[in-house]
């Protein structure tokens, strides 16, 4: 075979490979639209195993994950979400070229720019994706906030295949309208339920968080009085002793200003009152407070607090419970958040990255505050200097102690204070405090800090603590 023939054959192979990659984009689009592997397979006339194989090929091609598998389906990663508009436009244009219809010209033109909604496979019962997108686009530009918000509800709450996530700017606008009080209660409920049923996307949480912080007039991240932000939104039903507060006190004793925030009157609020630690009356008071302080959410973000208080009416968390961890009222450059095992475990870390924050850590566990749990392995998702890393940390070994404060008639908070004061020294509890402190110090120390070194420092801080430390 001469050189020219070889080049022709190589070109043919390249064309076939490129066509195969284009088919992967069709699968990519179907998964973005449907959010479910089985439904995507049905739309494309493929088997779920074939779609799963294509998904692996997409991951290999891009060199990173493109979807998280969760109990609610396939959640796109921030990278996949960034490609959504371009992929949807490409597939929509391909459909328009293949099936132009009697009233559409088949001549070349620019790619379609309507928002991504669904594959153009519809029954006669509803509008096609272009028409539905046009209606929503008109609603989104409406000057009337009630009508504009109605468009956002339709955008996220329609039937499968007829919906799409909001962009960051759309989510910011939607939540700003919600906090303004300009819409009907029915719209608030519909919006929150639609989000909960489908699941929050990172760009939506980023937009909500930005709107909530702006509504509360909070300073830009990194420009506030705090060094470490520690969200602590424990459920009223949460059991156990809030040992992470002692860890925050140790971090503060190392010279950092730590701000915890959580529910008004909750266990964290009660613990600060019990130990005479500082409860700040406002964000302004944080600049002159002691090195560790607690700020109730009702004091600085009453709108978000009211939404979170709707839990008993829905019997499930809503968007406000996710937003609370992103408020950062002290505008610290570093946040250490806790998260129960959920459908999207990296949601808050991915959101922080979209917002351009510098250092953010999420520690999975059994409570909505960062705390190492004895005898358990936990995920630690870190964002440091625009780099994301995933770690696995193991809590201290559970050790039996002869001292049982509860058995001696101590209350939950009395037990908590007695551990700090040294009247009771259960090894397991002390181990949890030290390990939690070590994680916080690692975040504050930057990417070069090691848990081995911060653990030793945490032990020193525990050994030299003083009862009057605050």
UniProtKB/TrEMBL annotation:
Residues 20-77 form the HTH lysR-type domain. Keywords: DNA-binding, Glycosyltransferase, Plasmid, Transcription, Transcription regulation, Transferase. It comes from the Bacteria. Signal peptide: none annotated. Pfam families: Glycos_trans_3N, HTH_1. InterPro entries: Glycosyl_Trfase_fam3_N_dom, Glycosyl_Trfase_fam3_N_dom_sf, LysR-type_TF, LysR_HTH_N, Nuc_phospho_transferase, WH-like_DNA-bd_sf, WH_DNA-bd_sf. PROSITE patterns: HTH_LYSR (PS50931). Belongs to the LysR transcriptional regulatory family. This is HTH lysR-type domain-containing protein.
